[in-house]
Design goal:
By secondary structure, this protein is of the alpha+beta class. The chain contains seven helices and ten strands. The protein has helices at 2-13, 29-87, 138-156, 161-175, 253-256, 267-277, 283-298, and strands at 99-106, 114-120, 126-133, 182-189, 195-201, 206-210, 215-219, 238-241, 247-251, 307-314. It is elongated and about 120 Å long. It starts with a helix and ends with a strand.
Length: 315
């Protein structure tokens, strides 16, 4: 508009006289000046539209770059969180006279709410633990780390299994919010003895395979999940007598609830079949067979929940 106005003003200053008569040619100076001024206005509007589109594209590219930067930073943070969480899992298999033990974990996301652990107690016994925090992701992963720290502190002091579990429950109840809880199972193995002391806070089913009878038994939990109430509500620990070849199988529900494309769940029965087929193998090989069978059953469906397994075998 400024260019067109300036052009008309310059033409008038040089003596141009507009002519609106019909007989004047369009190429005459009287009418050509109007044409040039109109062309300047049209060109200006076209340039404005093009510039506006370019600006939109540049703004979109800048927003995309910022989003990409934030996503990269989040992925980096999640990768770091996963690395830290995985580093908290046991690195070495405990050596217990009369027992073989193996554990395995695979979260559904970069971080998960499951974990397993074992620690040597003051009296020489070995505590094997498995926990499952509600949900999966960064929040449950933080709670799982807190639970692991509390468990290691409370079981280390040498108190009994029930008392240590009560203290663990009280500590967690103060920290976790309403609607969240932790299912937790602990098994205490005594080197050189067949006895295994078992206490489950809301975690189940638990599985015992008796080799001599070829019996696969499902066991329920003795108490409520940790963090539900401040005071632990539980039956006494269960005492198991394991003979040679017997297996205690502790897994999270990510295995049972993994569905295939027909929405059929893997379920405990298929787990029992895998254990029976692999009963002569070492615990780590049994866990590998269980995972491979679950993957084959799923038929390519996405893993929706964390997977964790611990197997204790009496030798």
């Amino acid at each position: 508009m400024t260019a067109a106005g300036s052009y008309l003003a310059a033409a008038a200053y040089l003596g141009w006289q507009p002519s609106l008569s019909g007989g004047t040619s369009l190429l005459s100076p009287q009418k050509a000046v109007f044409g040039y001024a109109t062309a300047l206005i049209i060109a200006g509007f076209v340039a404005a539209v093009v510039a506006g589109e370019i600006r939109k594209q540049v703004d979109a590219a800048l927003r995309e770059a910022e989003v990409r930067r934030q996503v990269d930073r989040l992925e980096h943070d999640l990768a770091m969180a996963r690395s830290i969480q995985q580093s908290l899992l046991p690195r070495a298999v405990p050596e217990i006279e009369g027992f073989e033990i193996a554990g395995w974990n695979q979260p559904a996301d970069q971080t998960g709410g499951d974990y397993y652990d074992w620690q040597l107690l003051a009296d020489g016994k070995v505590l094997v633990a498995l926990a499952d925090v509600t949900g999966h992701g960064i929040g449950p992963a933080l709670l799982a780390s807190v639970c692991r720290a509390y468990a290691r502190a409370n079981f280390r002091v040498g108190s009994g299994l029930s008392e240590a579990m009560e203290q663990l429950n009280a500590a967690l109840a103060e920290d976790i919010g309403e609607g969240r809880f932790v299912t937790f199972v602990a098994a205490v193995c005594t080197p050189g003895y067949s006895r295994v002391e078992l206490l489950s806070a809301g975690h189940g089913p638990l599985f015992l395979y008796v080799l001599k009878e070829d019996l696969f038994e499902e066991m329920g939990a003795q108490g409520l999940p940790l963090g539900v109430v401040a005071t632990m509500v539980s039956e006494p620990p269960q005492v198991l007598e394991l003979n040679r070849g017997d297996l205690l199988v502790l897994v999270t529900d990510g295995f049972f609830e993994w569905a295939n494309s027909q929405r059929e769940l893997f379920g405990p029965k298929r787990l029992a079949e895998v254990v029976r087929t692999s009963k002569e193998k070492q615990p780590k090989e049994i866990i590998s067979a269980l995972y491979q069978t679950t993957i084959a059953f799923s038929g390519g469906t996405k893993q929706q929940d964390d997977l964790t397994a611990v197997i204790i075998k009496r030798t």
